Structures
1.
Amino acid sequence: MRLVHLGLGNFFRAHQAWYTANASNAAEWGIAAFTGRSTKRSRARVAALRSQDGLYTLITRAADGDRFEVVRSIARIHLGDEHAAWLAYLADPQVQVVTTTITEAGYLRGPDGGLDVDRAEVTTDIEALRADAMAPVSTAPAKLVAGFAARRLAGAGPLTVVPCDNLPGNGAAVAQVISDLAERVDPELLRWIRDNVLYATTMVDRITPEPTPEDFAAVEAATGVRDRAAIVTEPFTEWVISGEFAADRPRWEDAGAIFTTDVAPFENRKLWMLNGAHSLLAYAGSIRGHVTVADAMRDPTCLRWLDEWWVASSRHLSLPAAENAAYRAALIERFANPRMQHRLDQIAWDGSLKLPIRVLPTVRNELAAGALTSGVVRPLAAWVCHVRGSGAKMTDARAEDFLPFAGGPLPGAVRLLLRALDPELAENEAVVAAVIAEARDLGQL
Ligand SMILES: NC(=O)c1ccc[n+]([C@@H]2O[C@H](COP(=O)([O-])OP(=O)(O)OC[C@H]3O[C@@H](n4cnc5c(N)ncnc54)[C@H](O)[C@@H]3O)[C@@H](O)[C@H]2O)c1
Ligand SMILES: O=P(O)(O)OC[C@@H](O)[C@@H](O)[C@H](O)[C@H](O)CO
């Protein structure tokens, strides 16, 4: 094992595990994969993958047919609470890379981007690590810090963390939460981390929905194998990576990954145009009764909303306009793939953490340009409606911070809900008025 992954979910199997399997030096890079948590869903995944020795079928689903491929890069499979195994891998000098896909919520960032030290689970983990730097812990930042403590003790040398979640500047973001946590645990350990751990920054892109029983049946029909760990993804895939690596790494570039000095222009385009549009459809499209992205793409009203969103978001990107137009054309084709069942309620999860990343930059940019239109605030208004019970069912890691303000007359609720996303924006009367008007248009009284 030379690579450890935290957050064994759908996306990792369609993306990083696939790139690693297709690297020219793949034979040197077995992955030990851990789920982020130990939920019932995680246990089912672990059981399915273990029963297949880590092998699984990747279904690449184009509009005109499926391609089936067995991915062979996962060598060990663990539940998130198998702490002794986690420490043992991180203490092994052969292990030189840690990748993560733990969702935006998993980094436990507060409003300033640093570690949210007011959260109970963070406090509990800090106390545990103060007593014993390798104690069992539950949060991802604490697991990484405990792993680094084990690595330091073993003298196993430097390594690189490669975050693969939809967070802008994800390398700096994870470095910050690690440093915030380690400084509260042990200054010596913090020093070691600063000297030995490097963080890559990545933009990741490949639409990967939750697989369905029909997907498992498709694998069985085509290959004769009953594969309960199969994953469906789209043909399009992108991985843009920047940053130095502390030691060795898989040659992901041989599988198509792009190494660059600045991920930000690609990251902004992806987060604003793809993920922003996804969130728009998740909230506004589900209010119109749509269940999947492809359903919404058959609705001319949703297409008009997307058009308005893309005009607004793309004009603030630094990449050439012609490239952005091509990206947008490709998005229309990707979203409309009629054979992908990408559920809007899956995309809608954790909106309070996603909207500040995917939607608010465009709202601020358009506000600064004096161009605040209904098309720009629609994702925010639709999220307000979603929180007040319209469209897709709400699931949000921060629900307790804003749900108490969601009821009552719309104007007051809009102001308080916006405050939960961005206090400054909530003070802007033009924004508040535009969101109220658009929420009314979407059916709120
Ligand atoms: N699915 C996609 O199309 C896609 C594409 C690009 C990027 N991503 C990124 O990957 C992330 C995961 O997507 P997925 O489709 O694999 O989801 P998933 O639900 O299949 O897997 C999520 C993984 O994260 C872990 N996790 C969830 N909450 C956590 C928490 N609070 N702390 C620690 N671990 C936690 C889970 O245990 C699981 O291992 C997304 O949130 C996104 O940032 C996904
Ligand atoms: O994965 P999430 O929950 O951050 O966001 C849901 C979708 O917008 C996302 O998964 C996209 O499909 C993906 O980012 C495409 O690369």
2.
Amino acid sequence: MTQPRIVGLTGSIGMGKSTVAAMFARAGVPVFDADAEVRALQGPGGDLLAPIEAAFPGTTGPDGVDRDRLGREVFGNAEALGRLEAIVHPAVARRRERFLLEHAGAPLVVFDIPLLFEKGGHASVDTVVVVSAPEDVQRERVLARPGMTPEKFAQILALQVPDAEKRRRADHVIDTGVPLAQTEAAVRDLAARLAR
Ligand SMILES: CC(C)(COP(=O)(O)OP(=O)(O)OC[C@H]1O[C@@H](n2cnc3c(N)ncnc32)[C@H](O)[C@@H]1O)[C@@H](O)C(=O)NCCC(=O)NCCS
Ligand SMILES: Nc1ncnc2c1ncn2[C@@H]1O[C@H](COP(=O)(O)OP(=O)(O)OP(=O)(O)O)[C@@H](O)[C@H]1O
């Protein structure tokens, strides 16, 4: 059986990755959502609660990981973030392998991976799609989120490959600074071309 073509979907914070991933799913393309996997692994009863509690005492409870609290410990502290990533990323990679086996017959699959460039994942996908919007649109979207502050936004941006570089390295750029219907049409068109 031929392997599906693997699309790596990425973009900086607030650029619209999750929205565009949902558009690919509506176009019939199976989507692996790395963030959702992290949330499941860190949620109530999740496999990673014990190792995270051991490494970051007091950050887990009956509701799973307290993400705000853990975020405060790791964003802005490279050593702590590295320790968390060493717990989380191998578990996500195992789930991604399983997803690929489950969808071995599909012509096209999407890996929605926020840190595709940052962690070198672009080398193991066939095509890179970057979602991008003007900086002021990104900023407005992110600061509108509950719990977000300009300081946290700046810390997260500093950890991410800049948008301009992502766009330069992309095989395809999806513009999300336009009306949703226009983005959705672009995604449908790209999905059809890539599935051929
Ligand atoms: C620290 C945690 C609990 C904070 O959760 P919270 O819900 O507050 O934030 P969220 O996950 O929505 O992330 C907010 C923004 O930060 C970015 N971000 C998250 N982790 C990282 C990281 N390791 N490096 C750079 N940016 C990151 C996200 O892409 C997003 O743009 C969580 O981000 C986490 O467990 N991160 C480590 C795992 C990871 O690398 N996840 C992202 C890729 S799968
Ligand atoms: N044309 C568009 N394409 C995508 N999103 C849009 C568009 N116009 C407006 N939006 C809005 O922008 C927001 C994008 O948020 P989304 O959660 O998809 O970003 P994200 O890149 O996944 O974020 P993060 O990296 O922080 O997880 C949504 O509220 C969405 O409705």
